Amino acid sequence: MKIKNSFKKLIQGYDEMLSLSHRTEIARELRDEDDLFLFLCFSEMFGIPNPAFYYTLELYPYMLEKFHDWHLRMGMENSPLDGVRCC
To answer: Residue 34: phi, psi to the nearest 5?
Structure first.
């Protein structure tokens, strides 16, 4: 039992050591995926036809805060879209 626990701790330590150097890359990839999803949901407002516009319309109240964070991160003080007023 003692050997099993020490082996388990060794595996956990090794796993943490491997993932430590990739945390920033993983966070960047997750942020890029969120940006892409945000773009797909707001694509109709950018002039790109979106067949799922009707379904993504229900997500807008939940996505306003993320959209606000996105345009601030991109260096825009106000919303670039006329239909979205998040500020």
So the answer is: -65, -40
- For the chain, what's the residue count? 87
CB contact at 8 A, 52 and 58: no
- Angle among Cα 29, 35, 40 to the nearest 5 degrees reads 125
- Mean pLDDT across the stretch 51-79? 85
Tokens of 18: 């491997």
Q: For tokens 């920033």, what's the residue?
A: 24
Decide: helix, strand or coil at residue 27. Answer: helix
Distance in angstroms (rounded) separating the CA atoms of residues 65 and 37: 14
User: Which residue's entry shows tokens 């082996």?
Assistant: 7
Cα 35 to Cα 29: distance, rounded to the nearest angstrom:
10
SS3 sequence, 42-53? Answer: CCCCCCCCCCCH
Indicate yes or no: pTM above 0.85: no
